[in-house]
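Schema walk-through. Below, the input block comes first and the output block second. Nothing else is stored per chain. Lengths vary across the set, and this one has 172 residues.
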Amino acid sequence: MSASLPPARGVCFVILLALTAACAPEPSSDNPFVGAWTLASWESRSTDGQVTLPYDGNPAGQISYTATGRMSAQLMRVGRELPDAAEASGEEMREAILGGFFSYYGDYSVDSEEAVVTHHVEGALLPSWVGSDRPRSFTFDGPDRLILSTEPDPARGGGAVGTLVWERVSGR
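--- output ---
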């Protein structure tokens, strides 16, 4: 018994594979943001120079940019644990779940001359972010390392600036 496909089916299968490969997103040389990036480090620097490390200095995350102008970001504290549900208050449970995780998504635009990528937030864990624009200055350190810096945030450390270093996720 042969495991090969009949000729007509084999041709259709090859065409389907070719079409699937043609539709798969690839990093674009025109847009170096396109692809998935994993968080390598995150620090927050206040106006007086004090550096703090969000999520207890143990963050993880991913940010993705598509060629069609969409983005999403997820950040979390590694090692989060839930308290015992029988003993914890609702507030303690909420803090354990939400206190170490953040996510948002939307469109993005790039101003290459100003070296700013702006995330146009459509949905976020924080309701106050929905409908806002989140500009980040950017620097590429080679093709596989992206450094994003937030604008000064008066709600965090009196105008703290967050700097997040991202490394491109290679295809598997």
